[in-house]
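Narrative progress, year one. The postdoctoral researcher (J.K.) led the effort to move from monomer predictions toward full complexes, under supervision of the PI. The following entry was the first complex the group processed end to end, covering 704 residues in total.
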Amino acid sequence: MADCDNLSAVLHRALDLRLEQRPIPEPGPGEVLLRVLCVGICGSDVHYWNHGRTARFVVESPLVLGHETAAQVVRCGPDVSHLQPGTVVALEPGVPCRRCSLCRGGRYNLCPRMRFHATPPVDGTLTRYFVHPADFCFRLPDHMSAEDGALLEPLAVAVHSCRRARVGPQSRVLVTGAGPIGQVSVLVAKAMGATHICITDINEGRLQFARKLGADSAVCVAGMGVEEAAAAVVAAGGPPTAALECSGADSSLVTAIHAADAGCVIATVGRGSLEPLLPVPLLTAKEVEICGIFRYANCYPAALALLASGAVNARQLISHRFTLEEVEEAFQAAKSGVAIKVMIKVGEKS
Amino acid sequence: MAPGTENLSAVLYGISDLRLEQREVKKPGDHDVLLRMGQVGICGSDVSYLTKGRIGDFIVKDPMVLGHEAAGTVVECGSKVTNLKCGDRVAIEPGVPCRRCDFCKGGRYNLCKKVFFCATPPDDGNLCQYYLHDADFCFKLPDHVTLEEGAFLEPLSVGVHAARRAGVTLGSRVLICGAGPIGLVSMMAARSMGATSICITDISESRLQFAKSQGADAVVLVKPGSDDKLLADAVEEQMGGVRPDITIECSGAESSIRLAILATESGGVVVLVGLGPPEVKVPMVDAAVREVDIRGIFRYANCYPLALNLIASGRVDVKPLITHRFSLTEAREAFETARTGAGGAVKVMINCEI
């Protein structure tokens, strides 16, 4: 290797993010050593940076942040055949145990021994070099940029929720919340053929952006009660047959239940209160289904296909760009609420 | 049928105001059959209309005949009826949909917005002597199946629909919350659909003992104020150290819904059958991060044939659940027994052949 620089963005505790050198690891069997090209920042990264924890995970020792990654293969460990040095890849950040019944059943996102980038205690990818299992690296076609590759991660969340909500042609989709996850959900729902996409939020600017991305109607629900909001949604595009809850607000979930057509599937991506009050008799009378969404499984290939074919243009989501050295400013921008997707450039293709 | 024929009917006029009165006997239309009513079971919803005059947005505004779990005998067929003839004993599926909307055409006719449903206001039920119904929603009973069993197809269909929507299949590990009639039929349906481990919970020890006698592998008594996480652990222990992958919640109670979600394995399914208060606290974060799906259940669709097959083949025996019997003239006492659960009542059956 030309240099031994492995600069890494390491979170020591809340709001204490330091740029440090770390040893460059060696790839073992089935693994590859990667040069990181770019890393997107997600709300969960910002949350760890801001609070040092989430409800379930606590930063107890220094943790490298970042999990939305595109990288270039530097060296392959033994038993790696589908990648070569120089291949540019997108990284699926979660490596499950591969041995439990959930892994065997294909729902590896629920593996209790999942090791996920930047979820304590597993280091993330805001670093120059790191090692990853080759089967969780997805080769990017030449016409796709590294930034596209980093966008596969949020795109995979949207693919998983659209699949679970059975979005397809004839679907009337309600997306509640026009943050980055809501925006990417609009893109994927559209690409999956939804007939009508209605988006809600309390912020007009975000709603306008969602319309630009392809949402057919937008409802500003600021100051509305749930029944009023539901009526507005139904008036805009008809009662939804699928809903993607991306806001984390309890009222959004309740609104979706009220607006839902009979048989609607509501995928909950956002996290709200631990035990919200839900109108259960309404849910049962309409045979509504609530499918929780926890990351994704077997979605990277589909997300890659959507980007590679041009069915989804995710690059328009990138609102801010920084270098690894500017990581502190990057997190400030992400926290400020004005950014959609913040992209951090870590390295160059060689 | 001659005009003036007796048709004594149990009519709800208002809260606690149930009257037996004569009602007109109508002539069957082209696709209808006229039935001499045989046996009608009482459901919790019938009792709710009697005691509260409403269920949610369904409000009893005009006098309404009660009864929807029913079987009878065909006495006259409309001109286009081909599946039945006079003398056939049938089970009556009480919900007749519009047949034209997308839900009907898609097979989910239970969700039809224009469905006619016996004893849901404003539609009359069939707790009477003569009743008219669409012939294709009447299912002929083999000779060895009694009219009481025919009436039982209705609640059994609720159990079949719940088990189907929950995805019960060979090897399923099923938790059932609530050992009332619906919990019991859900258990029977789940077993016949391949469940190999069934645990049932309830707040009543005697109901649990009865459930055990009807085939539950394990029971867990829920004491008021119990810690739900400890209960979930108790369920897991009773099920041989593995959590259920499917839970059928039959009580509607908030704490039971909570237990249902906490106890279910990651990636599993909870179906909500029970009707409870208008707003319920639901542990959504736990359900969401473990992808435990929550599905609402409303009545049933395309279940009567399977329910009939289960009874006719002997795979399911509902007779032990019929604990109290009355005649139509004793309708008030029948409802009082159903309301109080006196004498360990599970299913109260009313004989309309008086």
